[in-house]
Amino acid sequence: MKVKHYKDIDETVYHEKMNNGLEVIYIKKSGFNKKFVTYTAKFGSIDNDFTVDGTRYKIPDGIAHFLEHKMFEKEDGDVFNKFSQKGANANAFTSYDRTTYLFSCTENFYENLKLLMDMVEKPFFTDESVKKEIGIINEEIKMYQDNPGFRVYNQLLESLYQKHPIRIDIAGTLESISEITKETLYLCHETFYAPNNMVMVIVGDFDTEELFDFIRTHQENRNIEDLKEITHHFEVEPKAVLERISETSMNVSDTRLMLGFKYLEHGEEDKYNEAKRDIIMMFALDMVFGAQSKFYYEMINESLIDESFNFGFSAEHTYGHTLFTSRGSNSKEVVDRILDIIEEVKTTDYFTEEMLLSQKRELLGDYLSSLDSPEYIANQYTKYLLDGNNLYEIPSIVEEITLEDVKATFVEVLDPKYMSESLVVPYE
């Protein structure tokens, strides 16, 4: 077991890789009554083409999300109810690259932990239950298709990317869901829910040895010896966008705009610098378009935007994009203004040391406050760990960021040559 104490923030992390490959991280929060656990498989919606044991598989889109739904259903009933009976709140979610199961409680912790591990590790699928779930998720997909916010977002990803599976909704399509069988579910569970492809993060106040002994014993009883090596396959994504503008008519009162700038990394993967880049873009976008910026104030006064205006940057090694959202009939004017602002910032000394210092102080203040939340710690530690980084290294990353970093990253990431517009407009 590895133990590391972060003196500056007074946090201690215990990290052990079990004999079967499962990584377990315990973050001790002395005096906290609440306990929070995440149990994560490195399996998300983009993992639809892979090789294991020498055989290549192409599985239906949406199967990771489908599998997440099915894991709560067992032969003896719904596991959600069992968590509730033991005083726990349980949930799960699927993203592009992972599936996470979680619970929080203040009592019956070890009973709930065993319930979580048993639920995730022991699948139960039948032809009848799979068919029923296909119907349920089909209705979910149809419901989202009627949501203008969902439509404008997915339409943008379909325009930005030519081949990357991020183009496909996490839930899949009506056609792909119909192809899922219990056999493909068992294949995906055996492949991706193997202990060496999973991570558990626990936050709370426990006797350390008792906690790890409990998990060790449980994992040893699984008797898993054949650990599989997974090779993921992704087609090379071109830099160019697929479509410059895409538009859909819906029953909406005003136009929904989402503007996207595609960004693909160059060269070898560097996880630390990826985390640094993400923070830099958060700083840069807030300095330029945030509610305290002069450009935001000008756009509000010009009635170009309202409180619906938003922005954000998201990237992994195989994809990346910056998104702007707005509502109103003046979408063309909004796009033109955003492009003008980006050009002005790139060609002037807009960013200042004072701005950067303010961003750093605000982020670190929020970060330190969030460390009082077991939910935040467990979820964010999981995210940073699977991205190859460490939640507790954020202060040192922030410390390193310079004004030149901000200027250079802003120029590189926001390139109008790789831009798409997605519009949802009212019926005529």
How would you characterize this protein structure?
This is Zinc protease AlbF. With 428 residues, this protein is α+β, with helices and mostly antiparallel strands. The protein has 15 helices and 17 strands. The protein has two domains: 2-232, Metalloenzyme, LuxS/M16 peptidase-like (Cytochrome Bc1 Complex, Chain A, domain 1), CATH 3.30.830; 245-426, Cytochrome Bc1 Complex, Chain A, domain 1. The radius of gyration is 23 Å and the shape is globular. The protein has a seven-stranded mixed β-sheet with strand order 1-2-3-11-4-10-9, with helices on both faces. Strands 13-17-14-16-15 form a five-stranded mixed β-sheet, with helices on both faces. Strands 6-5-12 form a three-stranded antiparallel β-sheet, with no helix packed on it.
Descriptive key words:
428 residues; alpha+beta; Cytochrome Bc1 Complex, Chain A, domain 1; seven-stranded mixed beta sheet; five-stranded mixed beta sheet; 42% helix; globular; protease; metal ion binding
